[in-house]
C-alpha cells in the first residue's frame, strides 16, 4: 500500500497535476477569503466555508480523474494486478494519496485563520470542527469520484461525470425544497452532504454526520475495488 | 514450475482459450507459439492472475493463482504485451516502485543496480520513461519483471517492435534467464521460438495443436510420415501403384504430376515406392521426404487447413 501511495504522490508532483490543483484551489479560495472575510471586515468564516463547499466538489474530480482510468488506458494496472498486493491495498493507497493532496489544498485555510486571528479574537474551535468537516466531506467525494474513475478508460468522462455528480450533490438540499412529498424531502435532507457539512461549520461535531461521511467513503471504496476487479471476469 | 490444467476462457460467446493444459518445468524455456489472436496473451494473462479463467487451474511453483494469489504472484515476473510503464517516472524510480510493490526482501539499491546491469539500462537510469525509445521501454518492462528474481518469468511477445540488434540481445537474455528461471514466452515468429526454446506449445484458435521438445518439433509438425513425389503417368495408375506399397496410409494427387504419400513412420517406404512405380512403368522424377518446411507446416497447423 505504501508503494502505491508513494507512487501516486510522486506522480501528482512530478506532473503538473498536483501543482495546478493546488494553484487553482488556493487562488479561488484566496479570492473567496478576500471577498467574504476581508472585504466584509468579519472574523466569521461561515460564508467563506459555504462558498468553499462548491469549490471542493469541483476540485476533487481533477484530483481523482486519472487515478484508475489512466491505469487502465496505459495498461499499467497489469503491473498492479499481477503483483502480490490485494485490491484494497491498491484502492486505499490511491485514496490516501488523493486525500493528502486534498489536505494540502485545505491547509491554506489555516493561513487565513491566522490572518484573522492577528486582528481579532478568533474562534479556533469552530474553525477546526469545520476543517474536520471538510476532510470528511472531501474523503466522501474523493471516494465517489474514484469509483467513477474506475468505471472508465477516459479521464475526460471520469472528470465530467464526477463534476456532474458534484453539482448534483450541491443542489440536493435545494431540490429537496421543491418536492412536496414529505418523506422524500426528509430522505434527501438526510443524505444531503450540505446539511451534514453545515453541522461542522457551525461548530457541532455530530457523530451521525461523521458516521455518514465515513460510511459513504467506505461504501464507494468498496465499490471501486469491486469495479476494478470485475473486469478480470468479463 | 508452472502447471496449467484444462484452462478455458470465454469472452461472452467467444471461446478464446479452449481446454489448454501444459507444464513448464524449472530451468526450461517454453515457447508459446501461435498466430495473432490465437489466445496466447489471454493464456498468459490468466496464468499471471490478471484475468480470470472460465474454468481450469494454474499453479505457480505449487501455489494456485486463484486460491493463493499473493503467494503465487510473488513467484512471478510478468512482461505483458504492452509493458506496464508509468511514463512520468524515471527508470530508476519505476524499478524502485516495482521493488516496493512486489515487497521484495533483497538489498534494494544493489538489486536494482544489478537488474539494470543485466538488461543494460544503467545509462538511462535517470531518464524519464516517456522519453525513451520503444526498445528501451521494452527493457524497462523486462527489468520490472526481473525485480525480485522470481523463479517464474512470463514474457508476452518480448521482441515485438525491436530492431534486429535488440531482438538478438533480447533472445540472448532470455536464453540466460532460462538457466535459472522457468521461462514461458510467447511469439508468433516460428524461427524465434525455435532459436530460444527448449519446448514449444503451439496454439491455434485457442487450442493446443502441438506440444513437443523443439528438436522433435519438425518431426511432429512438419511431415513425419509424408513423402512428396513427382511421377509421370496416369494418376489412377500411379495412385493404384502407390497404394499397393506396404505401410502407405493415404495417397493424395496434389496437382498434375505431384503426389503426397502419407505413411506409417516406423517403415521406410521409399524402396517399395520405387519398385512399385517401376513395375507400373511410371518413372519417378523427384522424391522428397517430409514435404513441408517448418514454416509451411506451422501455417498449415495453425490455419487448421486440410491435409
Describe this structure in words.
The complex is a heterodimer of chains A (234) and B (307). Chain A is an all-alpha fold and 234 residues long. Chain A is built from eleven helices and no strands. Chain A has helices at residues 2-14, 16-38, 46-64, 69-73, 77-81, 87-119, 124-149, 155-178, 182-191, 193-201, 207-230. In chain A, α3 packs antiparallel against α8 (155-178), α8 (155-178) crosses α9 and α10 (193-201) crosses α11 (207-230). Chain A is globular, with a radius of gyration of 19 Å. The model of chain A has no long low-confidence stretch (mean pLDDT 91). Chain B is of the alpha/beta class and 307 residues long. Chain B is built from eleven helices and 14 strands. In chain B, β7 (152-156), α6 and β8 (182-187) form a beta-alpha-beta unit. In chain B, α8 packs across α11. The chains are: A mainly alpha (234), B alpha/beta (307). Chains A and B meet through α1 and α5 of A and α2 and α3 of B.
What would the keywords be for this entry?
heterodimer; A: 234 residues; globular; B: alpha/beta; six-stranded mixed sheet; 14 strands; elongated
Order of helices and strands of chain A: HHHHHHHHHHH
SS content category of chain A: mainly alpha
By DSSP, the count of extended strands of chain B is 14
What is the terminal separation of chain B in angstroms? Answer: 36 Å
Largest β-sheet summary of chain B: 6 strands, mixed
Question: Strands of the largest sheet of chain B, in order across it?
Answer: 6-7-8-3-9-10
Kindly report the average pLDDT value of chain A. Answer: 91
Largest sheet of chain A: none
- Gyration radius of chain A, to the nearest Å? 19 Å
Supply the number of helical segments of chain B: 11
Q: Low-confidence parts of chain A lasting 5 or more residues at pLDDT below 50?
A: none
Amino acid at each position: 500500500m505504501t508503494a502505491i501511495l508513494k507512487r501516486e504522490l510522486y506522480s501528482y508532483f512530478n506532473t503538473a497535476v498536483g501543482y495546478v490543483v493546488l494553484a487553482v484551489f488556493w487562488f479561488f479560495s484566496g479570492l473567496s477569503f478576500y471577498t467574504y472575510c476581508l472585504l466584509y471586515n468579519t472574523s466569521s468564516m461561515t460564508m467563506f466555508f459555504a462558498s468553499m463547499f462548491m469549490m471542493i466538489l469541483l476540485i476533487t474530480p481533477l484530483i481523482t480523474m486519472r487515478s484508475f482510468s489512466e491505469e487502465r488506458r496505459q495498461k499499467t494496472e497489469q503491473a498492479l494486478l499481477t503483483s502480490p498486493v490485494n485490491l484494497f491495498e491498491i484502492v486505499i493507497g490511491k485514496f490516501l494519496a488523493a486525500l493528502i493532496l486534498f489536505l494540502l489544498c485545505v491547509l491554506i485555510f489555516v493561513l487565513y485563520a491566522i490572518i484573522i486571528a492577528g486582528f481579532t479574537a478568533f474562534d479556533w474551535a469552530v474553525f477546526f470542527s469545520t476543517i474536520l468537516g471538510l476532510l470528511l466531506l472531501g474523503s466522501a467525494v474523493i471516494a465517489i469520484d474514484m469509483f467513477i474513475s474506475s468505471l472508465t478508460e477516459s479521464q475526460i468522462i471520469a472528470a465530467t461525470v464526477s463534476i456532474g455528480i458534484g453539482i448534483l450533490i450541491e443542489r440536493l438540499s435545494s431540490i429537496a425544497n421543491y418536492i412536496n412529498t414529505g418523506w422524500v424531502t426528509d430522505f434527501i435532507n438526510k443524505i444531503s452532504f450540505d446539511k451534514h457539512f453545515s453541522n461542522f461549520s457551525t461548530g457541532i461535531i455530530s457523530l451521525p454526520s461523521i458516521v455518514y461521511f465515513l460510511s459513504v467513503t467506505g461504501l464507494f471504496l468498496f465499490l471501486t475495488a469491486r469495479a476494478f476487479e470485475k473486469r478480470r471476469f468479463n | 514450475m508452472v502447471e496449467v490444467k484444462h484452462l478455458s476462457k470465454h469472452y461472452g460467446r467467444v471461446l478464446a482459450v479452449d481446454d489448454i493444459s501444459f507444464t513448464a518445468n524449472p530451468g526450461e524455456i517454453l515457447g508459446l507459439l501461435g498466430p495473432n489472436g490465437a489466445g496466447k496473451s489471454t493464456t498468459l494473462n490468466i496464468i499471471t492472475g490478471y484475468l480470470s479463467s472460465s474454468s481450469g487451474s494454474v499453479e505457480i511453483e505449487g501455489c494456485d493463482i486463484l486460491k493463493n494469489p499473493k503467494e503465487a504472484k510473488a513467484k512471478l515476473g510478468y512482461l505483458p504485451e504492452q509493458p506496464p510503464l508509468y511514463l512520468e517516472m524515471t527508470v530508476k524510480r519505476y524499478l524502485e516502485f516495482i521493488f516496493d510493490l512486489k515487497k521484495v526482501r533483497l538489498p534494494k539499491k544493489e538489486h536494482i543496480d544489478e537488474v539494470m546491469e543485466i538488461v543494460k539500462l544503467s545509462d538511462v537510469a535517470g531518464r524519464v520513461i516517456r522519453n525513451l525509445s520503444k526498445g528501451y521501454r521494452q527493457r524497462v518492462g523486462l527489468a520490472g519483471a526481473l525485480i525480485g528474481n522470481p523463479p517464474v518469468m512470463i514474457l508476452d511477445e518480448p521482441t515485438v517492435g525491436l530492431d534486429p540488434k535488440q531482438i538478438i540481445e533480447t533472445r540472448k537474455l532470455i536464453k540466460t534467464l532460462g538457466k535459472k528461471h522457468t521461462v514461458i514466452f510467447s511469439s508468433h515468429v516460428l524461427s524465434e521460438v525455435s532459436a530460444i526454446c527448449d519446448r514449444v506449445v503451439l496454439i491455434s484458435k485457442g487450442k493446443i495443436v502441438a506440444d513437443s521438445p523443439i528438436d522433435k518439433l519438425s518431426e511432429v509438425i512438419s511431415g513425419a510420415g509424408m513423402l512428396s513425389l513427382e511421377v509421370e503417368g496416369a494418376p489412377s495408375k500411379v495412385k493404384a501403384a502407390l497404394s499397393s506399397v506396404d505401410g502407405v496410409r493415404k495417397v493424395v494427387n496434389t496437382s498434375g504430376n505431384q503426389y503426397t504419400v502419407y505413411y506409417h513412420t516406423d517403415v521406410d517406404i521409399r524402396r517399395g515406392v520405387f519398385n512399385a512405380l517401376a513395375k507400373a512403368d511410371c518413372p519417378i522424377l523427384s522424391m522428397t521426404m517430409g514435404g513441408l518446411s517448418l514454416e509451411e507446416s506451422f501455417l498449415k497447423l495453425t490455419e487448421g487447413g486440410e491435409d
